Amino acid sequence: MADYTDVLAQLQYTDLTIHRKPIGQGKFGKVHKAFCQKLNRDVAVKIISDKKIFKKEEIDILLKSVAHDNVVSIKAVIAPKLEGERYWIVMEFCDYNLQQIREKIPDEKIPWARWTFLINDILAGLIYLHEKTFVHCDLKPENILVNDRFEAKIADVGLSRIAGEHYIACEKGDLVLPSGTLLYISPERLQNPYKAPEFTDDCYSCGLLLYKMITNGDLFHLKDTPDEKMKISCMKMWLCDDQYRHPFKDLKDFFTPQEIVTAIGILWNKDHDSRSAVKAQDMVLEAMNKHGYRRKETLEEADKFLKNLMDGKLPSEPQNTEDSPDVGKVDSPEGDSSEVEDLEQFVDDIADLDGISDWKQFARKGLKLRQIDLDSIEEEHGKPHARRVAMLMKWMEQNGFQATTANLEKALEKCKFKLAAQKLRKIEGIPQ
Hints:
- By secondary structure, this protein is α+β, with helices and mostly antiparallel strands.
- The chain has helices at 6-9, 56-64, 98-104, 112-131, 158-163, 187-191, 199-215, 228-240, 258-267, 277-291, 296-310, 337-350, 359-364, 374-381, 383-398, 405-415, 418-428, and strands at 16-25, 29-36, 41-48, 74-78, 88-92, 96-97, 144-146, 152-154, 169-172, 175-178, 368-369, 372-373.
- Keywords: ATP-binding, Kinase, Nucleotide-binding, Serine/threonine-protein kinase, Transferase.
């Protein structure tokens, strides 16, 4: 929880060593990393760009109204005393934002064990803000920060509230735009820019944010034109007309659990009264429990994999773009009863094999394990084994294993799928 102390309340400019290069840019000013001597830790400092003067009650809002693990905490506000000085907003430091993560590893499928926890963090923070009557009004990947423990926190909350940004529509000639970021604005606010934002507008933005987070793609591709009228026209058509409303079909290519697809659908619902962060979070928690994402070793493996990706220690493999298998179904294998028992044990042990309704579809995606193609495996070893190898590959991908001999060994040990393990080891030439 946020920690507000007398020491922080008396923080001065001289207590901070600011890094020259900004780490972010918001609508109120640039954000710099800094070292705070009094805290003996890194912090983030937003230097307000204009000469705005905050009232005491506004500073109290900044310091006391937000105290949640999934909302960026504001540690102190340093007020200017001399001509030319600016307000400094001192906040907890986070290593990345979601946009930076996706720029760093644009083509990677992130392990679902960690992705699901990040989604839950975002929804928990949003639910808290709404309970405190905050409407964020600009949820987007850049405003979701992630610390070194891969915990997500919502940023840019208090400043929007005290600046009255929620209710400002931007007028450009005869064009009126609602405040916020165009790609994440709800249909209701596009149709009426002067409409006061509501909680359901945040839910809508959150749905699009989560889609971007998973796929690294936007549901809407605006024409590359400076013509704002054209962009608004396109957005209204895509968002408000059932004929053009985009489906979530791309989520299948990322082996998205059905519960997460449902959660995003709840947030992105065309009927604003049906949007609910609470109901969406219920679906995410169901996914955690159903697919075993809460297991300590599963989460640790996912975090290690993600950390290595962020540090550039593992290659990022390109995504496939063809249709993925249907979600929520697993075929029974062909073969003798001992193989069926092995498969049943496999499913019991792993519990996150949703998606293999057609193993041939999985093979056609061209996924290979050390250059072993599933079609070739079928030809040489038969359909039942090829299907099981496809399932093993899917488990590896969902749990963050790269297709290397060392990680293959780990996957085979963890899945306890003895028959597939023996055959796959033989194919790979790995000692028994």
